[in-house]
Amino acid sequence: xxxxxxxxxxxxxxxxxxxxxxxxxxxxxxxxxxxxxxxxxxxxxxxxxxxxxxxxxxxxxxxxxxxxxxxxxxxxxxxxxxxxxxxxxxxxxxxxxxxxxxxxxxxxxxxxxxxxxxxxxxxxxxxxxxxxxxxxxxxxxxxxxxxxxxxxxxxxxxxxxxxxxxxxxxxxxxxxxxxxxxxxxxxxxxxxxxxxxxxxxxxxxx
Length: 206
Description:
Layout: H1 2-14, H2 19-26, H3 30-47, E1 50-53, H4 58-80, H5 84-99, E2 104-107, E3 111-115, E4 120-124, E5 128-133, E6 142-148, E7 153-159, E8 163-169, E9 176-180, E10 184-187, H6 192-205
Parallel strand pairs: 8-10
Antiparallel strand pairs: 1-2, 2-3, 3-4, 5-9, 6-7, 7-8, 9-10
């Protein structure tokens, strides 16, 4: 953007220029201004976003590996015996779990995004009452509905510490709890302490 106006100032200081030069300097193309503003806005948005990986725990690696091998083996065995339609069921289980994998988290100016395979689940900062690091907070609970260890621990769970909560977790040992007035959400970002710090800052600025 500054270059669009520098040319105009030089013309004023150095006197008249050719009509073509004045046309270029005094009437910049609208799309050029739009592109410049858009780029600045995108860079500003990028600076206000912080992303974190979702590392897998050893237990998730083991459970996912075993379940995948078993499902593929069963599927191949069924296919060899001419039961093609039934062979699709174990593969569907693996593909279904893969769809809900947690690829990472991003803190924006107004939300926390949980990145899945093809989409992102949005957790708004508005209404968030607190965020805290709480390792192993899922211990001693049970799954109400969801995925208990095939590519992720996702869905609705319950335990004595949190009551009913929703989980978007890949490592139960590095968990963070988000508390809203009517719900609890558990995540497992790569750097829990830094994640909570960034969430608090973004929540105060929202």
